[in-house]
């Protein structure tokens, strides 16, 4: 079918609009850091302390009652369980679901957060419209080359983070994640823009809608914990420097961020969500390879690096479940996994000849 050039221009206009609106959301998130309600972080910390004190008091009361009745005290709750390394156990309630409704929580966070979330939501709507209209313009799934793949995965990342941010009230992480989305989308729009066009014959298969869709979703999801991993390592480094008297306590930015346990928990939950999607994408790619080339696996460069990425994220999940590998060492593993993923996209598919060289980047 003939490419609808006019609709392609509409798609690009929506993408530029999304980029501008995302930029406004980053400014609003930064404004919350600089001019937001200064007592919000302190109030949240006091509330968490009260919750922990109430939980400990209830455990103590139950223990006393059991001892009075001649019974053994109950086991420790998840909130007080720790690993051998002194870190909270994996099921510790470091990021509980709040009882306050989402819209009310956004309003109570202040006008900077209200504006930032609104801009992020409108930007995600414009971004989604751009991806959909691009698909309508080319009459196929809109991820047939590098440019379309990057614009689609950043759309997934923005929508997924918007959901996670609202669910866990992680407003202060918006400036980092949405800022990374703006940079990535801006580079795609300026450096690798590709006009709407037909697919190369090798990609004209219904497996494009299955395999590449799964890889796009997984990459967009992994984009979020990669940013959170950098934030985690930065906060962890600052905390260790303060403990060693090599840095002054009370950093304004760190004080407004979620705790290091919350960052770790959110990163873990996000990767747990994205890992099965990546696994399905690798399996679907092997099935497509068998139909197209007569073999499930041929150690093509892209296949090899996709498998390396899978191994690294699997190692992170294993490390996260192992007491001795929690903390920053586990985050190094997941960031290495994302580096492998990016290397596969930007280097292997562009500069290394193989059977997956369909990036469309000259």
Question: What value does the Rg take, in angstroms?
Answer: 23 Å
Structural class: mainly alpha
Sheet with the most strands, sense and barrel status = none
In DSSP terms, counting alpha (H) and pi (I) runs of 4 or more, how many helices?
Answer: 11
What is the mean predicted local confidence, pLDDT? Answer: 82
Q: How are the SSEs ordered, and which strands pair?
A:
Layout: H1 5-35, H2 40-68, H3 102-108, H4 111-138, H5 146-168, H6 174-191, H7 207-243, H8 252-256, H9 260-293, H10 301-320, H11 328-351
Quick summary of this structure?
With 362 residues, the chain is mainly alpha-helical. The chain is built from 11 helices and no strands. The protein is globular and about 60 Å long.
Key words describing this protein structure:
0% strand, 362 residues
Overview of the structural elements:
With 362 residues, the chain is mainly alpha-helical. The chain has helices spanning 5-35, 40-68, 102-108, 111-138, 146-168, 174-191, 207-243, 252-256, 260-293, 301-320, 328-351. It is 71% helix and 0% strand. Residues 61-97 have low confidence and may be disordered.
């Amino acid at each position: 079918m003939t490419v609808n050039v006019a609709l392609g221009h509409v798609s690009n206009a929506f993408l530029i609009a999304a980029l501008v609106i995302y930029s406004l959301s980053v400014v609003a998130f930064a404004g919350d850091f600089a001019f937001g309600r200064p007592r919000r972080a302190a109030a949240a910390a006091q509330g968490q302390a009260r919750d922990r004190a109430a939980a400990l008091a209830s455990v103590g009361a139950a223990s006393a009652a059991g001892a009075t009745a001649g019974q053994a005290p109950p086991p420790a709750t998840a909130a007080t369980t720790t690993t051998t390394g002194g870190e909270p156990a994996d099921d510790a309630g470091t990021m509980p679901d709040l009882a306050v409704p989402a819209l009310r929580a956004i309003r109570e966070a202040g006008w900077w957060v209200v504006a930032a979330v609104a801009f992020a939501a409108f930007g995600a709507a414009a971004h989604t419209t751009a991806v959909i209209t691009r698909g309508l313009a080319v009459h196929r799934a809109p991820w047939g080359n590098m440019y379309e793949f990057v614009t689609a995965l950043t759309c997934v990342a923005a929508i997924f983070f918007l959901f996670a941010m609202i669910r866990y009230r992680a407003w202060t992480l918006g400036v980092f994640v949405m800022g990374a989305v703006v940079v990535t989308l801006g580079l795609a729009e300026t450096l690798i823009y590709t006009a709407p066009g037909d697919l190369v014959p090798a990609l004209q298969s219904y497996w494009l809608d299955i395999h590449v869709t799964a890889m796009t979703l997984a990459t967009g999801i992994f984009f979020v914990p990669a940013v959170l991993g950098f934030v985690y390592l930065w906060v962890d480094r600052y905390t260790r420097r303060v403990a060693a008297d090599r840095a002054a306590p009370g950093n304004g930015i760190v004080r407004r961020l979620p705790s290091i346990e919350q960052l770790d928990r959110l990163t873990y939950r996000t990767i747990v969500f994205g890992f099965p999607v990546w696994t399905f994408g690798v399996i679907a790619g092997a099935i497509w390879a068998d139909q197209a080339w007569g073999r499930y696996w041929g150690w093509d460069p892209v296949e090899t690096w996709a498998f390396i990425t899978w191994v690294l994220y699997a190692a992170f999940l294993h490390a996260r479940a192992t007491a001795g590998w929690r903390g920053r060492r586990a985050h190094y593993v997941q960031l290495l996994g994302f580096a492998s993923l990016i290397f596969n996209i930007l280097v292997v598919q562009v500069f290394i000849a193989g059977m997956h060289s369909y990036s469309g980047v000259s």
